[in-house]
Amino acid sequence: MAVDREAATIPGAEARRLAAWIEDYEPIPGVPDELIGSDGRPRAQWSRLLETLAGLGQEGVESRFAAAARRINDMGVTYRVHGETRERPWPLSRLPLLVTESEWRDIAAGVAQRAELLDCILRDVYGEARLVSEGALPAAAVAGSPEFIRPMCGVKPVGGRWLRFYAAELGRGPDGKWWVLGDRAQAPSGAGYAVENRLILARAFPSLYREMRVRRLAGFFRDFRAGLVAAATRADPRICLMTPGPWSETYTEQVYLARYLGFLLVEGEDLVASEGKLHVRTVAGLKRADVLWRRVDADWLDPLEANAASRLGVPGLFEAIREGAVALANMPGAGLVESRALMSFLPALARRLLGEDLRLPNVATWWCGQEAERAEILRDIDQRAIAAAFGDTAEGLEDGRAAIGAELDAEHRARLVAAIKRRGMDYVAQEVVQLSTTPAWRGGALTPRPFTLRVFAAATPEGWKIMPGGFCRVSDRRDARAISMGAGAKSADVWVVGDDGPEPATTLLPATDDARIVRVPGNLPSRAADNLFWMGRYLERAEATLRVVRCLCNRLTEPQSNAILGRQPIDRCERLLVAWGAAGPVDSADSSAAIALTAASDAKCYGSARAIVAQAKRAASIVRERLSQDIWQLLVRLDARLNGPAAPLEPEILEMCERGLHTLAALSGLMDENFNRVSGWTFIDLGKRIERAINTCRYVRQFADDDPTLETLDALLELIDSQISYRSRYLAGAALAPTLDMALLDPFNPRSVAFQARRIDAHLAALPALADDGMMEPQRRIAVSLRADLEAEDARRIDGKRVLLIEQRLMALANAVSERYFSHASDPAPGDRRSRFA
Asked: How many whole angstroms separate alpha carbon 163 and alpha carbon 458?
């Protein structure tokens, strides 16, 4: 019995708990089940798992599951249902799907054979087309598919393969053997989620994971990456993962894969096809892209030769592919093999092209584009499921779902029959498949639920490699015939359980020690630089807002707050918050505490601290592959900490502000200490420094202009966190000139404008120039000039007009940085970037 060493077990109670789980488990009659074998007894691998869970006790099991749910939130694992704008937390099933290693070997061999067969078919269809010319494959089954990309005919892919990443959708048939339900070759998703599922569940049950000798996934991805490197024409290729963008349903998975594999995450607007080659727009100019792992459907890849309405693709990409300048995974047109119409011909094609039968059979399929098959299906339609031959939609099929002939009413049946007679090539008939079941945890008990298993294959120099695991979707309904993540399904980790011997450790690190040493990894895409820059600005802007709110609350708690002089800093704090859009226009009925609460935590006010943090989080989500998990967790925590109290009470608002500022300080320290000093960090810090300098100018104009008093100057020193430094230098109270010097000109004060100007100039000096002529670019000229003027300035000559001029020069500097480095077609960070300083 595999017992978790972290659990205290009571043998008697453990045995009773295990027996109750098994006895209460009721498989669906006539449907294969993963827990209960054909002999009516629990399978050995499941007994080992359930014995360990029983040893934890009911509370122990629930606590582990709760820890897994917290881990999902901490990691920010989400997905989006098509048509929705909000992200949903990743629905992870609490139990893995268990497959023995001996059974997995058969699955792996069948998936590898199928991947090779589909690659051969694609090579022929887009090449010599002998299958069509010799009658082995009807022309309509090829040309009738919207995934047949005619511009790819005659193209020879770089590296020779049309498929480099393939997935097969599997389920158990009535005989208990695995069947292929569908093929995924366009842009298969789920591999990244499979890794995240593994990380979450393995951490929840570490001892169980080790003792069951679960096969690791890292080796598969290492081999896949090696295959992409081998496909490139250059020795040190730049590999890009092309994403549709942050509104993609699986964007977080794409971000994770890019970070996990070390690929450059790019959108279409990051890429340029020029002179038959593909390039990435970076802050250092155009850089060659050698390999593209696409997650954008083929029809959207090139608006010049495919869908002209596409804003996701790259004009001229197809020409670069034809020139052999870029290797793709997968080639445009590979989605052709996903069509159900093709499934009916695969058994014969396997014998013709490979000389062997399919190791994993299809679900039985008949294409209605052939007269004999169409007539047979129409005679026996009640015994079949009717589905679209190409894609998911066809006339008479509702919501893209297959129609079960026996379940149709007379009107719907007649309409579907007429459509098949009119245009039979758009339909297939398939055997009605009842999915097999796997145990799911519901209300402290086990219950059978239908599932599908997606298995991934990668082309490598040594042939096809199969991921020892996969992406499993478990339905929330007992009678599900089709499963999607938007229909109440959950995802389960897939454990390939070792037969004997420990599972060897595997990593993504290269096996040899002769790798070239690189200290500056790659180049930063312009879009990524833009979002990092704005992430820095948003975080600094949120901090400034919280500092003003804290200053306001501190003044409200002072005894002289109702006196004329005591009201001055309060009124100026309120005016500043209103000017920044953190609060609405002040009404006489509004209390200062209510204004403070709104400015800190009301997400509806675009300038509130909470709304600004949401903008920072949104910008960060677009460049998550460049941020550590700790940074993302702090951003999530910061948003949660600004969920304000129900009533505007100064102590509670102060506590909320302090918590938010502490989290911002932790975030700043984490980025300063752990972020590699390359271009990404430079743009975060550049945005932070520009924003801080602008904020300080606004503080000075608000609190040190228009007849400043001792109270307003003291508030200014508090806002720039310089009260202790000021008192250590000057024994008298706050005076105007020393305060202005400390806020604007002191090169040793990390909150002064002069300090920011030095850091800004240093950053711009370190960034690459487009021309090697020794001349300063516009943004550098502004920075050098501003720094020199501040170093030569005298605080006793400064007035409000001079401060406003400094602020305007800083805003011009921000615009110059944007124009120089962020050269892409559209605004990449969704949200409101309205300047509160205009």
From this structure: 8
CB 166 within 8 A of CB 120: no
Helix ranges, 25-100 (H):
44-75
Sign of the alpha-carbon torsion through 785, 790, 794, 798: positive
Kindly report the pTM of this predicted structure.
0.88
Query: Average pLDDT for residues 66-90, to the nearest whole number?
Result: 81
Please give the sequence-ordered ranges of beta strands (E in DSSP) within 155-297, or none if there are none.
165-172, 178-184, 239-242, 264-266, 271-274, 277-282, 285-288, 291-294
CA dist 623 and 601 (Å) reads: 25
Bridge-based pairing state of the strands 97-100 and 494-497: parallel
Residue 52 has a pLDDT of 86
Question: For the segment 632-680, what is each residue's pLDDT rounded down to a tens digit?
Answer: 989 989 999 998 887 788 889 999 999 999 999 999 999 988 888 888 8
Sign of CA dihedral 567, 568, 570, 574: positive
Q: With bands split at pLDDT 50, 70 and 90, how would you rate the model's confidence at 504? A: low
Beta strands 403-404; 271-274: pairing state? unpaired
Which residues have C-beta within 8 Å of that of residue 10, sequence separation ≥ 6? 57
Query: Distance (Å, rounded) from C-alpha 462 to C-alpha 331?
Result: 20
Q: How sure is the predictor about 308, in pLDDT bands with cuts at 50, 70 and 90?
A: very high
- Summarize the confidence of residues 508-524 as an average pLDDT: 65
Identify which of 508, 87, 603, 38 has the alpha carbon closest to the alpha carbon of residue 259. 508
pLDDT higher than 90, residue 831? no
Please enumerate in sequence order all residues whose Cβ is within 8 A of that of 336, keeping only pairs 6 or more positions apart, or say none: 122, 125, 142, 145, 147, 148, 149, 185, 342
Q: Is the per-residue pLDDT at 600 higher than 80?
A: yes
Average pLDDT over residues 337-365: 94
Please say whether the dihedral angle defined by the alpha carbons of residues 251, 257, 262 and 263, taken in this order, is positive or negative. negative
Q: Quote the pLDDT of residue 669.
A: 93
The answer to whether the Cα torsion of 78, 80, 86, 88 is positive or negative is negative
Cβ pair 188, 456 in contact under 8 A: yes
Residue type, 451: F
Of the candidates 236, 254, 260, which has an alpha carbon nearest to the alpha carbon of residue 293? 254
Contact 150, 306 (CB under 8 A): no
**Can you tell me the distance from the alpha carbon of 611 to that of 617, in angstroms, rounded to the nearest whole number?**
10
Helix spans in 265-361 (H):
317-322, 340-343, 346-353
Give the other-Cβ count within 10 Å of 559's Cβ.
Answer: 7
Domain 364-431 CATH (choose: 3.40.1440, 3.30.1490, 1.25.40, 1.10.3200): 3.30.1490
Cβ atoms within 10 Å, residue 223: 19
CB within 8 A of 200, min separation 6: which ones? 68, 71, 72, 75, 77, 92, 493
pLDDT value of residue 590: 66
Q: What is the residue whose two structure tokens read 């984490």?
A: 670
Q: Assign 6 a pLDDT band (cuts: 50, 70, 90).
A: very low
Task: Residue 214: name the closest of 227, 229, 199, 228 by CA.
Answer: 199
What pLDDT does 734 receive? Answer: 84
Tell me, rounded to whole angstroms, the distance of Cα 795 from its chain centroid.
49
Q: Which of 554, 474, 433, 426 is nearest to 180 (CA)?
A: 433
Chain mean pLDDT for the chain: 88
pLDDT band per the 50, 70, 90 thresholds, residue 327: very high
- Quote the pLDDT of residue 825: 42
Helices (H), strands (E): how many in the chain? Answer: 27, 22
If 0-12 CB within 10 Å is exposed, 13-18 middle and 19+ buried, where does residue 12 land?
A: exposed
Return the structure tokens found at 481. 């015939």
Long-range contacts from 637-640, C-beta under 8 angstroms, 24+ separation: 637/663, 638/542, 638/613, 638/663, 638/664, 638/667, 639/610, 639/613, 639/614
